[in-house]
Amino acid sequence: MIASPKMTAEAEVLCQQSISVLDFQYLHVSNPIDNHFLDVSTTTPPQKTFPIGCEVGASESVSIEIIRSESEGKGKLHIAIQTQASQLVVSWKNSFQTTVIEPSATKFVPSIRSGSHTDKGYRESNEDEHIHVDDLSAHLGYIFGCPLPSAFYAVFDGHGGSNAAAAFVKENAMRLFFEDANLPQASDIDELFLEMLEGSHRKAFLLADQALAEECSVPVSCGTTALTALILGRHLIVANAGDCRAVLCRKGVAVQMSQDHRPSYSQERERVEMLGGYIEYGYLNGDLAVTRALGDWYMKFPLGSASPLTAEPEVQQIMLTEDDEFLIVACDGIWDVMSNEDAVSLVRRGLRRHDDPHQCARELVNEALRLSTSDNLTAIVVCFTSPVCRESTPQRPRLRCCSLSEEARNRLRSLLKGN
Question: Domain PPM-type phosphatase, which positions (predicted)?
Fold first, then answer.
């Protein structure tokens, strides 16, 4: 189902035994958002991944009735979906453009905590770097002008035989992403603020790329992929250039929040070829396994020219709700051997056992090692709920086993026969 390209939706789900009713109120916005998709599917587990920008088919018949009315300057879409399920999930897609969907019934603010783990795996050295900051204001103050909780996470996967590029970007990340990026200021978050914030994030990636070109300590043959996740209040903004990946767990369902930029991805292949590049044996220009990265200036055109290899990130925005449990941010060493669903299931089970995101990140890395990944490994697990208070339950008295003598067994047998 394709929604109108000029609407910001507010969704409320009402579930019945056989019919689920989905009410949307929409407001026209000044900037059209292209290719909005609303995918409706059941939440009964088997867990499925709904990658952004694609449609999900359903095995059962679904009838959709759309009624539009105009009143008080607002339009209303009333969608009735006939299905066997008693619950449904709505995920929104827009080919990695800005999407903001705010449930009208909730004022959820996430309680953020995280943990991370990294391992060189079977490589000689670890070229990965990462950042996890649960409270940005404690480090930088209220840099956006509004006193909302904020957090920042990033994974940088270096390549070219050195972690010089990844290490440089990590060391200068706070300056590049927050001090030099002309962050928007506002007393409250609105559509214009989010649009400006996305623009400043894109600029930060390009600033980091340019800084690598000017840094003498970083060889031109070195580069790094980069994925960042910024949380501001209830807003999650994910920016990606490369093949690291962010996956959100929404009520047990894996929702992919980024696209892997590899030569095998058809849209990237088309972009590369349009700019004069080529794909050979699965590699960009026969040399690089990704189509977007910071650095690698030996493969790029001079500053200001569009190159087949670009540092321009794709950015995705989403509004967090009570259904959002955690976010996994990890390098390709994890995703090469694990599906989104497997990773989400592993972390979810871990949180139910010990409620420790740091231990979950370690378990995720260890599982990828067990599955014989060939790359470095880095994982960050970001939880959106407060720690669970576990009350100590009194232990049952331990029973001591003892054996009966032959005489006692015979007496017991005779008593049982007598009854």
Answer: 113-384
